[in-house]
# Entry
Amino acid sequence: MAVDVILGLQWGDEGKGKIVDYLATNYDIVARFQGGPNAGHTLKFDGKKFVLHTIPSGIFREDLMNLIGNGVVIDPITLEKEINKLIESDVKFSDRLLVAKKAHLILPTHRYLDAASEAAKGKEKIGSTLKGIGPTYMDKTGRNGVRVGDILADDFQEKYNKLKTKHMKLVKLYPPIDFDLEAEEKQWFKSLEVLKSLKQVDGEYYINKAIKEGKKILAEGAQGSMLDIDFGTYPFVTSSNTISAGVCNGLGIAPNKIGEVIGITKAYCTRVGGGPFPTELHDETGEFLRKEGAEFGATTGRPRRCGWIDLPQLQYTIMLNGVTQLVVTKIDVLNKFDEISAGTHYHYNNGDHTELPYDIATVKLTPKYKSYPGWNSDLEDITDYDSLPTNAKSYLDALESYLEVPITMISTGPERKKLILKEKSGVAV
Ligand code: GDP
Ligand code: IMO
Ligand code: MG
# Structure
């Protein structure tokens, strides 16, 4: 059986958590393959709301296994908080949550370094979530990291101390910041006991055995393709490969085991943190999108920057990921517009282009737009595609024909059930 993938095609927060939770009943295993507690995946059902940072979004579906893959970086403190929320809500998870031994640990000093390095950048700052993501992946590729599988070894404390010592030297490179390391370490070691209580697996063997047994697996991405370390708006990116190629490294599966690649885009576009965003709106329309879409970060609470959908940007990430089907979320956020715009070209270097330039972080891009009539009505209770207002269908048809990938799902609200299935996708029920 192939591994299907769900990932974000913009700058994150496309609604991945909601769609994974919805589709999870079609799968046996949901596996996170990269990122860490910088992610915030919101799930709403039965009047309840959960925000997951490390735990896969399949956890609320009974009988379904959830794997935190080797490509993920784990902060035991955040993980414990997430687990406590599950316990409070009486979710039985202990035999359904597995952690790959090769996943790397975020130490308190990784967060210390992240905060010190960001503060030192001043106006140039990335807008990191300050969860220690960059420094942890640096230690992974620098071959200094501490992994989940090390926790139970006799020399764990030694490994921890060695890395901490290195970090304490590095942090002196930056101007001093407030960071209560002692308190953070105390909490970290307490939370580590919770992580120790989870079942550790050799993730790559676990997943490949499951594939062989015909189990259905859904890989859940974090962040978005424009935050990919290689192909995103560097250096305003995260530190992992967020694109579908990351599934292979992040779970230990071969490229030929990838099946459907389900790319999610909002019906407009957002970004949180610094960096280029060609179709950003700095006017009242952007403000209106933020208000209607409740665009505030699920992890940091920061206001998200808002703008129109950017079609060349989506073409780019569809190409990088090999997207086979599209999900358009938050279409309801556009309900009150008389007119909706979509970016179709960029003007730079005296010409119109549909390719993003290498130096996107410095070159001045002016987007060009096409306008579509709005539908000015509520989509709240619509459950089938044909009942959507004609103008909403025309907008979706225009996206589909421009992007040349079928739209199979349309999300009309934050709740689990607010989803229109456009056509049989082979994945959705
Ligand atoms: P993720 O990181 O991709 O999982 O997305 P987030 O959870 O960070 O942000 C998506 C936000 O939009 C959350 O607050 C969701 O509850 C909400 N949401 C998801 N789908 C829809 C939708 O179709 N309409 C509206 N209005 N909100 C949605
Ligand atoms: P989900 O999975 C949106 C952004 C940060 C910052 C940059 C680097 O919820 O879609 P990092 O903490 O990784 O060093 O931050 O990436 N960022 C996200 N933006 N959604 C996310 O995750 C993000 N994870 C990181 O705001 O600009
Ligand atoms: Mg999010």
